[in-house]
Amino acid sequence: MGRVSDDHRRRVPRTDTVLADARLEPALATLGRARVKEVVVAAQGRARAGEIAPEAVADEVVASLPRTAASMRPVLNATGVLLHTNLGRAPLSAAARDAIDAAAGTTDVELDLATGGRGRRGAGALAALAATVPDAGGVHVVNNGAAALILAATALAAGGREIVIARGEMVEIGDGFRLPDLLESTGARLREVGTTNRVRVDDYADAVGPRTGMILKVHPSNFVVTGFTSSVPASELTGLGVPVVADIGSGLLAPHPLLPDEPDAATELRGGVPLVTASGDKLLGGPQAGLLLGDADLVHRLRRHPLARALRVDKLTLAALEATLRGPEPPVRAMLAADVDALRSRAGEVAAAIGEPAAAIDCAAQVGGGGAPGVELPSAGVALPAACAAALRAGADPVVARVEQGRCVLDLRSVPASEDGRLVVAVRAALAARA
Ligand SMILES: *Cc1c(COP(=O)(O)O)cnc(C)c1O
């Protein structure tokens, strides 16, 4: 500081003078005055510290203004993990994005425009869900998969009643988040049956008694147990006289030919399971949501439970969910179904467009996000030197890659084909930044 002269400090422009710069007008409109002022104050600070010339303050502000009011940035997912939790799981379809945009203002989410009276909240989304899963007598939507479980556990087993659950299904779903803790937080008690690797129908039958509130089957969605194992399908537990809840996790509403081991709602319901819970933003490819599907009376009971109000979804979710269910194939489903030869030819084109040192390679993608554990999806991509990964993340249009075997891999299965051009531009910029 001592080296900065008083004259230099006096030449630092006043806040109002900088804010009056015509170049800041668009930012004042999109970001708001307070946010722009923060940037001005920071630039003035740098000028006073002698880091920039006093005359450069306005230029510095123009260069460092954030482009949008929210700090979350779009990112290209080249990890090959289709549902990447840290990248927001399922990317929404264009139809779902449009629906969110349309619902963002005032909307008829809970109003019947024909009568002017109150309408059922999210009627369109619920009707779409019911139409997609005709085996469900009732449907309801809450904030996420965890909320769906909390609602079921609270309504069926709070107050010290028991949830009978296999020991091998006491799972942690990620980020230190454990299902048993979640369930016990409702006041229910867990009655564990079987061993880590094996459980039989008799184990459940022996545990069910007057204190039982429900039997819970949890799909181990992020690990596989192999070897000497056995588990009981939820449909074999429906004769024990208590409600059976199947948490299928990933949100497949019907069987998927590429994921034969992944449970789906229709099959569970057809097997007589009274309640299925699932996430909306995994293999369904929609917004974050928790789906409750099943017996009409049971779902009605859950929907009317006081806790349901605290778990309800907002209008944006309802809009995106309906568009996902009724609209064109969501991106996750397209990525899952992508043909490996088509991925290979895209990889060749992307590598050629980038030039040295990019090389097209074969690789393996995965579903991720708590779905289809252990399933490898044949894929193709582009290999770069490992050090590129950081430069790609730091770019103006960030790309998240996978680093494996000492190289940076851009897996194209998780990149929509329409974004290949954007990927090439981002990679070229990252390579130039490193040079
Ligand atoms: C993902 C998952 C959950 C949690 O769902 P969220 O939507 O993340 O709250 C619960 N159970 C299983 C089996 C899951 O795979």
Structure keywords:
Aspartate Aminotransferase, domain 2, L-seryl-tRNA(Sec) selenium transferase, alpha/beta, 435 residues, transferase, single chain, L-seryl-tRNA(Sec) selenium transferase activity, 37% helix, globular, binds pyridoxal-5'-phosphate, seven-stranded mixed beta sheet, 15 strands, four-stranded antiparallel beta sheet, Aspartate Aminotransferase, domain 1, PyrdxlP-dep_Trfase_major
Q: Per DSSP, what share of the residues sits in E-state strands of 2 or more residues?
A: 15-25%
Stretches where pLDDT is under 50 for at least 5 consecutive residues are none
Shape: globular
**SS field, number of helical segments:** 18
Q: Biggest sheet: strands, sense, closure?
A: 7 strands, mixed
Structural class: alpha/beta
Give the full name of the CATH homologous superfamily of the largest domain.
Answer: Type I PLP-dependent aspartate aminotransferase-like (Major domain)
Helix proportion range: 25-40%
CATH architectural type of the largest domain: 3-Layer(aba) Sandwich
Which whole number gives the mean pLDDT? 95
Strand arrangement in the largest pleated sheet: 2-10-9-8-7-3-6
The first-level CATH class name of the largest domain: Alpha Beta
Please report the distance between the alpha carbons of the first and last residues.
Answer: 34 Å
DSSP strand count: 15
Bound molecules: pyridoxal-5'-phosphate
The tally of structural domains comes to 3
